[in-house]
């Protein structure tokens, strides 16, 4: 990974951020914390649902992105709406469907009334009463510390350990760089690799309109039983997600989403902004067939005509991008009192 463009935060600030990250009282009903959607044991995302689940079980429209190596991302969220982790932290805190706090003051007053938090903010910032920027700064410090590099791929590509990858995995990398076109967006550099161009592309994956029948029957069928009819009233309608367009209002950005880094990708299922692809095999098959039909789709997304052996080799290569640090982080972070 390339060097970070800012100095490391103090240990005390990172620790305060860690406590805040796991703090359920940061939600209005004292049930949700950052770690509920960004689960350390699940690659700092979540495996249990296609999209994140918010306050009181409300289904959110997008998959919870991993926080591993988030320090290298210049833009945040699937649509790139924010550039600062410190500022980003407040968006879910104040979103009525996520953590549901009615105001900034509500959060700050809760923290300021807790003796342990008073002590921590006093020691770091010189005041017992936290500010909005200080809370964001602490969460940012912790999230920037979630570094998981040093994969088998790195040993092979950048440290010259030829035996770090198997012949099949090396074939997968050749496909990644060549026939499969993966590196067009998931960039591999000469000296390091972040596996993303941090740009926005229309890949053809987006949420479509869903009828109430999506709860259990085909959208082409009419609910015929009383149970289906009653349940239909409680199903949340799913709308097409316009992606980056919702931020820029530029027609060229309609259905465009930020390229995700592929580091630790084996650990961060499900995939795509809507969690619609559950396995790496499904992702490779999706791109092999050229994605789904959508206006303005990137010209890079086209049928690849991969063989079954080539698809398997690509998946094998993607699994070499997992870092041993990613597996160790959850135990270490939860062990701290």
Explain what this protein looks like in three dimensions.
Helices cover 35% and strands 1% of the residues. By secondary structure, the protein is mainly alpha-helical. The protein has three domains: 148 residues, Orthogonal Bundle (Cytochrome Bc1 Complex, Chain D, domain 2), CATH 1.10.760.10; 136 residues, Orthogonal Bundle (Cytochrome Bc1 Complex, Chain D, domain 2), CATH 1.10.760.10; 25 residues, no CATH class. Strands 1-2 form a two-stranded antiparallel sheet. The protein is globular, with a radius of gyration of 21 Å. The two termini are 30 Å apart.
Which bin fits the share of residues in helices? Answer: 25-40%
Mean pLDDT: 89
Q: Which regions contain 5 or more consecutive residues with pLDDT less than 50?
A: 207-229, 231-235
Tell me about the largest β-sheet: 2 strands, antiparallel
* SS summary, helix count: 14
Strand-pairing-aware structural class: mainly alpha
CATH second-level architecture of the largest domain: Orthogonal Bundle
Q: How many β strands by DSSP?
A: 2
The CATH fourth-level homologous superfamily of the largest domain: Cytochrome c-like domain
**In terms of quaternary structure, what is this?**
single chain
Rg result = 21 Å
Give the end-to-end Cα distance, rounded to a whole number of Å: 30 Å
